[in-house]
Hints:
It is found in: Nucleus. InterPro entries: B30.2/SPRY, B30.2/SPRY_sf, ConA-like_dom_sf, P-loop_NTPase, SAP_dom, SAP_dom_sf, SPRY_dom, SPRY_hnRNP_U. This is Heterogeneous nuclear ribonucleoprotein U-like protein 1. By secondary structure, the chain is of the alpha+beta class. Helix content is about 40%, strand content about 20%. The strands form 4 sheets. Strands 3, 4, 7, 12, 13, 14, 16 and 17 form an 8-stranded mixed β-sheet that branches. Strands 2-5-15-8-9-10-11 form a 7-stranded antiparallel β-sheet, with no helix packed on it. A 5-stranded mixed β-sheet has the order 1-22-19-21-20, with helices on both faces. Helix 6 crosses helix 17 (about 645-655). The chain is elongated. Residues about 80-90, about 100-120, about 155-170, about 175-190, about 200-245, about 255-260 and about 285-290 have low confidence and may be disordered.
Amino acid sequence: xxxxxxxxxxxxxxxxxxLREELKKLNQPLHGNKAALGQRxxxxxxxxxxxxxENQDGxxxxxxxxxxxxxxxxxxxxVGKEGEVAGGTAAEEQEEQNMADEPEAVTEKPxxxxxxxxxxxxxxxxxxxxxxxxxxxxxDAETAQEAAEASEAAGAEVKEEQDSEAMAEVKQEQDSEAxxxxxxxxxxxxxxxxxxxxxxxVGGETEEEAKEGKDNTMDTTADSTTESASVAGTGGGxxxxxxxxxxxxxxxxxxxxxxxxxxxxxxxxxxxxSDDFSEESVSTLVQGEGKxxxxxxxxxxxxxxxxxxxxxxxxxxxxxxxxxxxxxxxxWAAAKATWGARGGKVCYExxxxxxxxxxxxxxTEEHPNALxxxxxxxxxxxxxxxxxxxxxxxxxxxxxxxxxxxxxxEPYGDGDVxxxxxDLESSPPSISFARNGNHLGIAFTLEEDKxxxxxxxxxxxxxxxxxxxxxxxxxYRPLPEGFEEYLPLQGANGNHKQRGMVGPRDIGDxxxxxxxxxPACGKTxxxxxxAREFPQKRYTILGTNQIMDKMKVSGLAxxxxxxxxxxxxxxKATDILNRLLVMAGKIPRNYIIDQTNxxxxxxxxKMGYFEGFVRKAVVVIPPHHELRKRTxxxxxxMGDPVPEDALNAMRGLLNSG
Length: 657
């Protein structure tokens, strides 16, 4: 290696182990990657060549000096011979004098075999040995680390082959959590100690893109108070566990017996639709649904934005009914009017056109056809009579507010006309009803301080009943005697009317939020709280809990009034929800999907219905002790614990990362 180019070529051809061997020969450090080792070796070799060149130059100079000294010595000898005789005596005397003046020489005894050399040379040798030992230790540590990394990589590869779909989903969730930890943006809590991760996405993402890990642009600007990616504070133990190095987590998981854990990719998803479910059947079921749009003017109609997804409004805008096939016969369907009253004395009419015959209901169903009419405020929800400012009169002859029932009036049914009267002018304000023109008395006396400034909307809730609304003259039935001054809402003073919230016209202006988490982790609590905090978005929450609420009988949970197999009704509710998801993707609104949604396949399927929406995911992870407590409370209340195999599969999907 006579040139720099030769050195470069030589070093470039060496492997890491060979680089370290060469460096060790040159007493150089052995730590670092291949690039660092190569650079160090090149420098050492160049330094070695420079040293050799300097040594060669020094040897040549020494030879020249020796030759000059020899030449001088010969000359001196010749001169000395010439003066030897004349100056012999004087030379001898001078030599004796010089010897007398020289100090006595000290002879240093070399160390015997086995004795320690205490000179500087011995210290240097010792230091060199210590350096070599330290470098060998470093090399051993690096070799062990490389072996550990290779082992972990091999383990990770095996795990990925065994559970590729689960790992892909968990990786996506881990990326969301890492992003939330880095940004430390706005925090939201389900309860103290729960962790919530909000992940935003804009535009449509195909299943193939999601599996390949292609991320769409994230929307972190909308509603920055709660919608930006965030992680709520967690309990100390949970936080420490989440910050534990990934290597420790992998080793801990690898130590478990995989045969005792279910394969998350093979376990059945309890939220999957039945075999007879198809999107085509839903399209046939809701054919024509969503085409009606309330007019922009002052004409009052039923409002397809402030109504249940499965409440069908006819093109005339005032005729409607709920779906009654494929399980929907069990559900109440409600709608409000586009305009409400905030003053004066106003009224509207409801004509019962038909009691729809259904075959899906069990023979034990006490009220297969039912109806409730009344008034409610815009933010009181669609369940008429189940909120403080929601007042209803049912076909069984009962009045209800805030889920409190009282005997009132008389029963009514097919062919009857019910007049709903609202007096916001008198003191105190009141609500009353008339059946076929006969006044039934005051149903509700309102508290002035609670209704002041409120707007009350016509509100109906039906179950397998078709009705037609009348908001204007002429009326179907004359007003009761003494109530002639009441005006149909359409003809009321403009100052006494108010337009309800107008929904979005395009799905591009809407968003869908998918909840993700184990049963009883707090998803429903988060969803309800979030919907209350953003009333301007008027979220429609889609979940089996909401479906079961729509199945109530006389305000009581369906469980206490159902005589068939409970698990069959739960499955029916799940099928209804899956049909609603298909419908929702075609109707512009803001949605929250309140299910476990831990299976990647289910996530792709459900979010696929909402192409064009702003799509987001919210992962709720409470501390383990809190989850156990909530699960016990849920099982005690519901009496139908989630099957253990399904629950373990869900845990595996959430915890395998």
